[in-house]
Design brief:
CATH architecture: 3-Layer(aba) Sandwich
Number of domains: 1
CATH topology: Carbamate kinase
Distance between the termini: 30 Å
Strand order of the largest sheet: 5-8-2-1-11-13-14-12
CATH class: Alpha Beta
CATH superfamily: Acetylglutamate kinase-like
Order of helices and strands: HEHEHEEHEEEHEEEHEEHHEHE
Helix content: 40-55%
Radius of gyration: 18 Å
Number of helices: 9
Oligomer: single chain
Strand content: 15-25%
Largest sheet: 8 strands, mixed
Length: about 280
């Protein structure tokens, strides 16, 4: 499809108020494994653009498909409970290999190639993320106890895009696998972000007829979870949105498979996916 010069100008003008609004603001973006696989180049190009127009993107990534694939090659079967991966010590080694040895370096290299400046880290670095066991039945799956913001803000102040793997360090010295949506929410709260954006492999939060719910407030999102209207991986995503609202005005669940999903969400009037807000509905 060819866009004439007038249409291009209209698109840029539409984006201007949002560029002004979020200039100098932190935006935490969680990249899901499927979004990384299918739209990595476009998504990271969006991130570079955000940095050049004065926003402060922070990337948090998972790597679920890669972890599952490597686990199977090593003879380890993946098991999930309520959307969380059961993590024994052998699986934890796979998680670290994939997230800090493959996914993070690849994202950093791509961002740098596209014209950005990125630095990879995990929650163990600093340490940035202090964790404790979430549930004995889940093994080395952690919950975030504390986020130390200084390592992240130091990178932002020097012009870098932090790329953070969702691994935490426990007081017991053990590494913990933490759901990346949860990590993104905790980091967003700690940094006082303007937005939390969760890129996933569905169009957004769906109603009973499979249609995208464009906006939810906190009470509506809680009702969906409590009534079992959402399941699997959407549970930690909505929980992460609710947690982020304790310090972040808006959280979004959007389809990372859509080209330039970040730009469509941040710089257009209609946006895409599902927006979760604190109280009531916003225009």
């Amino acid at each position: 499809m060819t866009i004439d010069v007038n249409e291009r100008a209209r698109v840029l003008v539409e984006a201007l108020p949002y560029i002004q609004r979020f200039h100098g603001q932190v935006v935490v973006v969680k990249l899901g494994g499927n979004a990384i696989e299918q739209r990595k180049e476009e998504t990271l190009l969006d991130v570079v653009l955000l940095r050049y127009v004065g926003m402060l993107p922070v990337l948090v990534h998972g790597g679920g498909p890669e972890i599952t694939a490597l686990s199977r090659r090593l003879g380890l079967e993946a098991e999930f409970r309520n959307g969380l991966r059961v993590t024994d010590p052998a699986t934890m080694e796979v998680v670290k290999m994939v997230l800090t040895g493959k996914v993070s370096p690849d994202l950093v290299a791509t961002l740098n190639r596209l014209g950005g400046q990125a630095v990879g880290m995990s929650g163990e670095d600093g340490p940035t993320i202090i964790a404790e066991p979430l549930d004995p039945d889940l093994g080395l799956v952690g919950r975030v106890v504390q986020v130390n913001r200084e390592p992240i803000t130091a990178l932002l102040q020097r012009g870098y895009v932090p790329v953070i793997a969702s691994i935490g360090l426990g007081y017991d010295g053990l590494s913990y696998n933490i759901n990346a949506d949860t990590v993104a929410a905790e980091i967003a709260v700690a940094l006082g972000a303007a937005k939390l954006i969760l890129l996933t492999d569905v169009p957004g939060v769906l109603d009973g007829e499979g249609r995208v719910i464009s906006q939810l407030d906190r009470a509506e999102a809680r009702r969906l979870i409590d009534a079992n209207h959402v399941s699997g991986g959407m549970i930690p995503k909505l929980e992460a949105c609710l947690r982020s609202l304790e310090g972040v005005p808006q959280a979004h669940v959007i389809d990372g498979r859509q080209p330039h999903a970040l730009l469509l969400e941040l710089f257009t009037e209609s946006g895409i996916g599902t927006m979760v807000t604190r109280e009531g509905r916003e225009e």
